[in-house]
Design a protein that fits this description.
One of its GO terms (biological process) is signal transduction. The chain has four helices and two strands. The protein has about 130 residues and is mainly alpha-helical. It has one domain. Helix 1 runs antiparallel to helix 2, helix 2 packs antiparallel against helix 3 and helix 2 packs antiparallel against helix 4.
Length: about 130
């Protein structure tokens, strides 16, 4: 919860701004532009896409790693331990049953699906501007 409270505003702003920057930058390329300007816009597009990919990828890796933690804890030989150890293992398993996720305002979990949604939103805004 602390991690989400700290990073939610930053991630939300980053994903929203990247979506608009991608769409408006692509829209600028539709006009008659010089080669140097087109190169600058393409570099900007690549950096914005890279930023969304990195955020989405590591959010997905966090979810994947934390979901495997429950299985790893359960699979080790904890049944032969002391009652206190068994209790601690069970408490840990209860806490790790739900995977840890980065999310935006508790609405959207940051994962590779988020990458698809950001790119889809950018394209939809681009298509509206183009028409």
């Amino acid at each position: 919860e602390d991690v989400n409270n700290i990073f939610t505003p930053t991630i939300a702003f980053s994903l929203a701004s990247s979506s608009f920057i991608l769409c408006f930058s692509a829209y600028q390329l539709l006009g008659d532009v010089s080669f140097l300007f087109a190169l600058k816009v393409l570099v900007l597009l690549s950096f914005e896409i890279k930023q969304v990919i990195i955020t989405s990828y590591f959010g997905d890796k966090l979810m994947e790693s934390s979901s495997k933690l429950f299985d790893v804890i359960y699979a080790h030989d904890w049944t032969d331990g002391s009652p206190q150890y068994k209790r601690l293992v069970l408490i840990t398993m209860i806490r790790t049953y739900r995977p840890i996720t980065l999310n935006v305002a508790g609405i959207v979990d940051i994962s590779l699906i988020t990458l698809k949604e950001v790119l889809s939103t950018s394209y939809q805004i681009f298509a509206v501007l183009k028409t």
